[in-house]
Write a structure and sequence with these properties.
alpha/beta, Rossmann fold, Fumarase C, Chain B, domain 1, 49% helix, 12% strand
Length: 625
Amino acid sequence: MDAFFGPAGRLSGALAGFEPRPEQEALANEVADALESRDHLVAEAGTGTGKSLAYLVPALVSGQRVVVATATKALQEQLLTKDVPAAAKALGRPVRVVVLTGRQNYLCRKSLQGVDQLGGLFRTAEDAADFERLRDWIETTDTGDRAELEFEPSNTLWAELSVGAERCAGRRCPLVRSCFAEKARERAGEAELVIVNHALYFADLALRTRSDGAAVLPEHDAVVFDEAHRLEDAAAAWFGGRISLARLRQLERDVERFCREESRTPPSRPLAEVDRAGERLIGAFDPGSGRRRLTAADQAELEEHGLVLAAALEALAAVLAGTGEDGDALAKRSLVAAEDVESCLALDDPDRVSWAEPGTVAWAPVDVSGLLRESLWESETTAILVSATLDPRFVRRRLGLDDARELVLASPFDYRDQALVYVPTRVPEPRSPGYYDRLADEIVALCRHSAGRALVLTSSYRALDELVARAAPRLHFPVFKQGDAPRERLLERFREDVDSILFATSTFWQGVDIQGQSLSLLVIDKLPFAAPGDPLVEARCERITREGGDWFAEYALPAAVLQLRQGFGRLIRGHGDEGVVAILDPRLRSRAYGRRFLEALPPAPVVAELESVADFFGTQARATA
């Protein structure tokens, strides 16, 4: 790897301004060794290490087919447009790379047959207008990939025009030779590097586990999970299941469409029973917002409605069975949905948890370690897990990755000079009277010292609304709030308006990369412990307790520490960045566990007085002048 990452290595000639980093070369060497020896690797590489190139180069040198799975679309774009071309230039050869997305992102040729006669499938005027905007693209696209579109068609229209994992007939489809999704999969089968997201990788894993020979991804020698700190939740989602009104109604529309195309009389009564039973089940437990765990107290009512829905779905399947390949496929979908309903009823199973959220009832395994061990870690596929914030021992325990190498590399940034951590002593506890007023005072004072240029990360939507309402009228800078525009558009505005302030919640704690002056102050309202009422978190903690462990020390605390480190990582993104991280939670100083958080953060000075923040920004201002 020294031939690539050393001072006179190939990357120095391929990348303008390339700076050799010992941490990057160390990670590359460890990845190369793991691929050669077929050992799993769990590596934490601090912000600024350059981890993408550190795994891409050895992966491409190895001669193996490698899948890279990321948590965010932004990282996929970075890999495709920036990092893979740089690696190819250093290698001195083209790289066969494909980005593969789920089938629901591709047009379906079969759905497009007779599209002008869809009629009733245009459920709204918006659907009809969006279809007209799509016509030229539909007729000229070579890929059928939704990512090519410059606008977002309505979800109801796209659901009718796209493939969808449940609707796809696969090899049985008469149009399989011209299928956009199949062509994308064929291209992936010819590539040496395939880029996907975590969800698609686990969808493929779950499919391989549940069926014989079925797969989404091509066979591969190794997988690199970037942003691996998010793997546990991704795995839980895909090894679990859900039943939603949207899913049921898509099934109903597909049955009606099948009958219309086959000149059959729709099974009106079974369809009406499915719709009515679905509304009763999901409506009975709909929490309005957020998630509500289903407990033994809900068992009787859950079974009453759930068994009726499962029976209605089975009755629909019986009507459809034997009506041809398409009818049989719809019958199978009905039976799979019935199985998911029945899975949600198993409230006495300690290995799974069920919950309700708006429009949906869902379940997931409480512990994914055994499932991952059986389906992935013990397979012949080498797994490389990397993240800027990972805590290898914690992640290995949560994921069941018993036999794996560990590597921890610090960030190459000089946090002692580039950053300051401000933890005030005068902020009240989160449940104290006047809490949000006091936090708003701190935010206003901090933003005045930083001249805006701030990202305020909140731990909940309530905190977001409360702080914006109290602070925004007193801030003489442009203020943006999550929800006012799509995420990427908000970040674009934040970058362009250098003195602006962006208030945001959980989805902005990671995957945000703002270099330069636009982000000089990062405010975190409180320590990011998971919501105590979250069903999956609650069930995981209960499981640890049943096994004789300490749920707080073994799960809640290390998970919160990782989340805080993710938030902290939004500030310093380059060697030229400088700024202040303000954590407005007195528990950092008043509780014994506060030291765990502070010790886990990069080694920046920690101060308690606002004057120190003023001095930091004053020094910056003088240096800039």
